[in-house]
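On clarity, I found the account of how folds are encoded harder to follow than it need be. Since the whole study asks how a given chain folds, the encoding of that fold should be made plain. For the editor and my fellow referees, an illustration may be useful. An entry of this sort, consisting of the sequence and the corresponding backbone structure tokens, reads as follows:

:::
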Amino acid sequence: MGSFLIVGGAGYIGSHMIRALVERGREVITLDDLSLGHRAAVTGGEFIQGDLGDMDLLGRIFQKYRVDCVMHFAAFALVPESMANPLAYYDNNTARTTRLLTAMRDHGVDRFILSSTCAVYGQPEKSPITEETPTQPINPYGRSKLMVELILEDCAAAHGLKFTSFRYFNAAGANEKGDIGEDHDPETHLIPLVLKTALGQRGPIKIFGTDYDTPDGTCLRDYIHVDDLALAHYLAAERMLDGGPGGIYNLGTETGLSVREVVDLSRKVTGRPIESLEAERRPGDPARLVGSAGKARRELGWRPAYDDPERIVASAWKWHQAHPRGYGG
């Protein structure tokens, strides 16, 4: 059946991955240092608090449990922070992942799934982005993830590692049960920021730039429900566990939503007059970041359940209403 070590499972995407695996009857072990995650987000399996770069701890885990596949969700992921403190990103995202891979090799664990990012593409000239789009990251965050992908390729050649890397865009929404969701500090993602405005927890939402070459002049981004992301990871794991290959995949919608569309959709879902303010463009914001998922659909049989963006926002709104202070209340 397969047992899984989820690194960073107390975070937003990792916690939904755990839910998906437990609901399918899989054995799950979570490793998280809780520096950014929440213990309450881990709703199944066994939890171990610790550092993914702790070789002694990793050795004990791999000796105690029969781990068939490791999934990595423990990266730092704030672009401005990566530019202000690049060494922290290269340490956590790259160097510590290398130690994790070393422990896997030493204990004969040869299947790995990386939660990667569209940031490896930088500012692509064409949209939608495919896996053949050149990788030209423009910040330490994107570079730290691309470095890991290159390391994985080398490990595949040298040690027979099977790996899958998912380059995805904006994870959004929450599990339909409403008990796990998105709780970041600081929060930087658009949908939760808009919903916090709807709850009266912050001021008007700022729309940075209204003169882009998009239908309504605001930036266009891809939003994928977090449970659909978890489904893709599950399908890739099952494929590798059945003896199939890994691969590199984009996960996107090929259409996307503009900033203004997200705000308008949130007004519809919440029934609240969400105030917005137009502001100057932010440096480095591409007009469009939309990804193709054709390869994942063909090779993995990935079929997102949340193809209606209103359902994505509604699931997030359910979480934020029930947890206005996140996991703290």
Residues 86-106 form the longest helix (21 residues). The chain has ten helices and 14 strands. The chain has a mean pLDDT of 95. The chain has two domains: 3-172+223-251, 190-221+255-290+306-328.
